[in-house]
Amino acid sequence: MKLLILLVIVVGVIAVAQLAKIYQLSARLRGHREEEISEADTRLQGALLIVFMLVFFGTTIWQFVRYGDYLPPSASLHGESVDMLMDYNMALIIIVFFIVNAALFGFAYKYRYNKNRTAKFFPHDNRLELIWTVIPSIVLAIIIIYGLQTWTEMTGPASDDAIRIELYSKQFDWTARYSGDNEEFGATDYNLITPSNPLGIITQEGIDAALLKLNGKISKLENEINSEKSHLLSEKKEIESSLHPEGNHGHGHSDDHEISADHKKHLEHRLQIIDGILDSGSATILSEAAYEAKTDKIYRLERHIQRILELNPYELGQGIDAWTVGKDDRIVKGEFHLPLGREIEFIFRSRDVIHSALMPHFRAQMNTVPGLPTRFKMTPTITTDSMRTILDNPDFDYILLCNKICGSAHFNMSMNIVVETQEEYDAWLTKQKVYISENN
Ligand SMILES: [Cu+2]
Question: Which of 33, 77, 247, 262 is the most buried (most CB within 10 A)?
Fold first, then answer.
């Protein structure tokens, strides 16, 4: 079937080429020069350009009417400025769009080929140059200055009573962290990330547990390596040959190979251990590659332990220990809450790749970068309930999205946001899970 379709296409192309050739030949027979274009031709082309322009303008206007309002009103303080900036840019683009396209198609029609018209030589005009340099400069300067102002509004230092929330991204979900009563986040380190400590919060308990687990892994691997059969056999052979030298260098006076009594005792002891393992049947058999892989794994686990041991406790000032304050941090998954009218400072972290935290209803977005915390602040101005009323949609929810194509399940990387009154927020927060609670 596919072959048939291909065949039809190929035959079609050949037919069109042949027709074109016939047309050329017939034109030559009629004494018509190929490159000669009649006034009727250009009039038709010009009129078609005008028609195209009208359809182009029409669909553009229709799209603005149909899709122009794709976001509900801004739900944050700085969002007003972002929207203003967006509207200003959009207005500029629309004006320029209509002027440029009207000129493009209009002139193509107006100055279509005319035998009686001669071209005017018009190389330079200072006034024109000035106009199309100065006007865009002013317009662009407004965009840049206004844009920078709005940017500073979002990224400037947060006030002292701002609520700080950490948003942690990884492939493929978000975790929010609220500080406990001490209003400080505990220090974190990627070496301590485990299934039960996904954010890598540093606590003495976490360090002890991680070291215990790593040491357990190492001793298991060491056990497998130390009882590997072929390595044990070759070691046995080596020991035996040094205990009982063959005496290839003459009869008995091989002084160089004489071994000390101590060393001999040591070797004999080792030989006993090896025989013990081999006799007990607990020896493992590993391929050379598997043996090397396990040796390598031990090396990496030992380095991991080393990195954890190098973590140093430090003070956050005023006698607050960065290793202890993490215990009462609150870890929140699935959805997180914000109090209405309070300034929120977000701190973003990423475990693996660059993600981007987008909260479209608050007109806010920031990249989350592994190893480099980023931040911005904002103040929510409309509660979820009010927004549901405004939009007449009882199912509406504010949302946090990942806006960077970060992998296969990127589309699924979102978290609902609930904006509510301070009382509701306080009640919700006390119910959230504490990282290491007093009871366990
Ligand atoms: Cu992502």
Answer: 77
Shared domain for 147 and 172, answered yes or no, is no
As beta bridge partners, residue 321 has 315
pLDDT at 7: 92
Q: How far apart are CA 374 and CA 359, in angstroms?
A: 15
pLDDT tier at 440, thresholds 50, 70, 90: very low
Tell me the C-alpha distance between 11 and 5, whole Å.
Answer: 10
Domain that holds residue 167: 163-189+324-430
Q: How far is the CA of 333 from the centre of ligand 1 (A)?
A: 15
Q: How far is the CA of 173 from the centre of ligand 1 (A)?
A: 7
Q: Sorting pLDDT into bands at 50, 70 and 90, what band is 438? A: very low
What is the spatial distance between Cα 365 and Cα 360, in angstroms, rounded to a whole number? 8
Confidence band (pLDDT; 50, 70, 90) for 248?
low
Residue 223 CA to ligand 1 center (angstroms) comes to 41
- Is 348 domain-assigned? yes
Return residues with CB closer than 5 A to ligand 1 (ion): 355, 402, 406, 413
Total of domains in the chain: 2
Distance 413 CA to ligand 1 centre (A): 6
CA of 370 from ligand 1 middle (Å) equals: 12
Q: Give me ligand 1 centre to Cα 349, in Å.
A: 12
Confidence of residue 439 (pLDDT cuts 50, 70, 90): very low
Alpha carbon of 377 to ligand 1 centroid (Å):
21
Q: Give the per-residue pLDDT at 276.
A: 81
Task: Give the confidence band of 56 by pLDDT, cuts at 50, 70, 90.
Answer: very high
106 and 85 in a single domain? The answer is yes
d(CA 328, CA 434): 5
pLDDT tens by residue, 406-419: 888 899 899 999 99
Q: Residue 386 C-alpha to ligand 1 middle, in angstroms?
A: 29
Q: Please tell me what DSSP assigns to residue 263.
A: H
User: If you measure from the C-alpha of residue 197 to the centroid of ligand 1, how many angstroms do you get, rounded to a whole number?
Assistant: 20
Among residues 438, 417, 439, which one has the least CA distance to residue 181?
Answer: 438
* Pair (46, 151) in one structural domain: yes
Give the amino acid at 375: R
Whether pLDDT at 78 is above 50: yes
Q: Are residues 176 and 130 in the same domain?
A: no
Separation between Cα atoms, residue 305 and residue 243, nearest integer Å: 39
Q: Is residue 204 part of a domain?
A: no
pTM: 0.69
- The reply to whether 302 falls in a domain is no
Average pLDDT, the chain: 84
CA of 409 to the centre of ligand 1 (A): 8
Element (H, E) at 100: helix 79-110
